[in-house]
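Internal tracking record. Fields below are filled automatically when a chain is submitted to the structure queue. Please do not edit lines marked as system-generated. If the sequence contains nonstandard residues, flag them in the REMARKS field before resubmitting.
Queue: standard
Priority: normal
Entity type: single polypeptide chain
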Amino acid sequence: MRGYHYLMHLAHLLNTLAVHTLDLAEKVLTLGIRGLLHFLRQTVSGPWLDAQRIRTLVATRTQLRLV
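SYSTEM-GENERATED OUTPUT FOLLOWS
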């Protein structure tokens, strides 16, 4: 079957949305359906990630401490 992995990604997205339905319902009440779809599209496109900040974080030496 062609494109099976795309179908699985879509199913994962729908399952994740179903898990967070209460939060999603609150978003629908505040944004409306079109606003929610716009918010989801923006979130999937990734504008929330700042490439320069990520480069800086990767370049710095960090130490992981298990407490």
